[in-house]
Amino acid sequence: AHQWRGVIREYAERLPTLAGAPVITLHEGGTPLIEAEKLSARVGARVFIKYEGLNPTGSFKDRGMTTAISVAARNGAKAVICASTGNTSASAAAYATKAGMTCAVLVPEGKIAMGKLSQAIAHGATLLQVEGNFDDCLEIARKLGEAYPVDLVNSVNPARIEGQKTASFEIVDALGDAPDIHCLPVGNAGNITAYWKGYREYVAGHGISGVPDGPATKRPQMWGFQAAGSAPIVLGHPVDQPETIATAIRIGNPASWTQAEEARDTSGGRIEAVTDEQILAAHRLLSSTEGIFVEPASAASVAGLLQVHAAGGVPADATIVCTVTGHGLKDPDWALNGVDGERIVPTRVPVDAVSAAVALGLEG
Ligand code: F0G
């Protein structure tokens, strides 16, 4: 019987820095690339959704956590630490458990989604809610990583980027070549850095010694999207009090800022801001027209694509991939708000009125 073996084993020859590390895996990666017909028709291009919510802990972080924890195990680490807006902590807690390590996580108080909080707790992490934002948490985590014998597993850890670059490989493998444009949300900017690294390494003639040539003939433009209240790269300066309902990307001073700018500039791409309203509209569009349920931050990629389309910036018939980074069940409450902001409550019916009510619903 065959099953997907996880990103380290599937792409071993392209992950030379993992050589000799034990493979700590929950069989992450291998996520579907889904053609989005309605969205394609709307923007006049061929749009695919890379559904990263289908990773073992429900977000793309697992791709980088299998590598980060495997390298930590090779280093002999007994404990790991991270700062997080929620998904990194959920992933770190799960992979640390798999490796038999302890895990400490620092999260901004009151600003992480319930699903993510419960994951970290379920996997036995030491969870501290810090009276500050993500940027404060990361600063503290970095210092603790230096002062104590623990490995920092945020995306400033190069092993994280190595694992996350495999998403680009999968996209090229599925499409037969790189897309023309790749859209994704930007928070701490590790993922845009990783995708760009992956695309560069997966073209013919990349010239990296010991790593085989890739099948792609081109590299995409990288289009990154930040939430308007947390858009330091767009503004050109750090944001002291980042705000957005997309708590996963509520970040004011991204660690991989320069790498994100490099990806944007060398790919001929763009990094723009989208409002919370645009994010929620894209969130609803994905669930109600494409059958894909994501957490709000993930919808920033699609919100951004729609924004560029509205400005006339989407080339006709381009092949476009939008990464949606986390599952809708991470933060399900948003689906229960209607278009007008009213709360959606399922209709109550007496037992003998059910069939009439169902018939009415099926007609509507
Ligand atoms: N989407 C989701 C669902 C995320 O959780 C994150 C980051 C991003 C997008 C942005 O990715 O930081 O690589 O630019 N979440 C981190 C965390 C910060 O702690 O879980 P990025």
UniProtKB/TrEMBL annotation:
Pfam families: PALP. Its cofactor is pyridoxal 5'-phosphate. InterPro entries: Ser/Thr_Dehydratase, Ser/Thr_deHydtase_PyrdxlP-BS, Thr_synthase-like, Thr_Synthase_bac/arc, TrpB-like_PALP, TrpB-like_PALP_sf. GO terms for molecular function: L-serine ammonia-lyase activity; pyridoxal phosphate binding; threonine deaminase activity; threonine synthase activity. Keywords: Amino-acid biosynthesis, Lyase, Pyridoxal phosphate, Threonine biosynthesis. It catalyses: O-phospho-L-homoserine + H2O = L-threonine + phosphate. Catalyzes the gamma-elimination of phosphate from L-phosphohomoserine and the beta-addition of water to produce L-threonine. This is Threonine synthase. It comes from Nostocoides jenkinsii Ben 74.
